[in-house]
Amino acid sequence: MQNSAILPLFYLPPVSYFRILTERNTSFFIEKQEHFPKQTYRNRAEIASPNGKLVLTLPVVKGSKNHTSVKDVKLSYDIRWQRLHWLSLQTCYRSAAYFEYYEDGLAPFYEKKYTFLFDFNLELFDWLRNQLKLNTEYTLTKEYESSGYTWDYRAHFTKNKLDRSEQFKSYFQVFSDRNAFIPNLSIVDLLFNQGPQSKSYF
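RESULT FIELD:
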């Protein structure tokens, strides 16, 4: 494959994820066949809270270990995570300038019960692309290939890399009166604070 990039699929991906989509002039692939790695952004996101960074985690059905294909990982509803996540987003961003602008479009994702993590993340990803007005097209992988891509981001989004604040321009965030700027949070942090101007951030 020439001039191609492959990315994993995340839950409410970080800002840097969308920066890649806007900066690379290439063919994008979304990894659907990889084994599910635990404790990654595939089932967690980070938002701003009064006490700093808050992690939202999507629980998955027990047995979803490293040998399970990411497309086969099922969401667990043993706890009411949809209600908890939506309440967290409301509580943390109700005062954000553009929360109400996106609220009605985002709420259904926390009402409909999805069976598979991948399906949930993919529909949410498409919704986010539309809000950012990104015309970037992508292809879902049909089989796992360990190499052959110009840029391989499947193992790129580690905690250490996400915390490099010097790589990110600051913008106004909720709770800026008590917290310093927190770089590279979920893309919804940028959307709720910057609204339709979010795309120009990149």
